[in-house]
Specification:
Blueprint lengths: L2 H32 L26 H16 L4 H4 L6
Length: 90
């Protein structure tokens, strides 16, 4: 199994996990409403980590270029590779 396939499998498992908990929360929400609760949405019952919005990092053009150079150096196997893996010997 390749790295891409492993990543896809883990993403699917995580999505299945989230779906299961979303169903549980929705079921609890419907039961609470049927018992006369004044809840407005299901997130008032349970809050999950994926309910919060992720703040995206804004990268400047200079930082992006620096990261590209680091990546290309890493891929090409240059001497900078020693920074990332101390087990590599010259």
């Amino acid at each position: 199994m390749s790295f891409i396939e492993v990543s896809a499998v883990l993403d699917a498992l995580n999505e299945n996990y989230q779906d299961t908990w979303e169903q549980t929360r929705f079921s609890a929400f419907i039961q609470a409403l049927s018992n006369g609760s004044k809840l407005k949405n299901s997130t008032e019952i349970l809050k999950f980590p994926w309910d919060t919005e992720v703040v995206k990092e804004i990268v400047s053009a200079e930082d992006l270029e620096k990261r590209k150079q680091q990546l290309f150096g890493f891929i090409s196997g240059s001497e900078n590779l020693k920074e990332f893996n101390p087990l590599i010997q010259s």
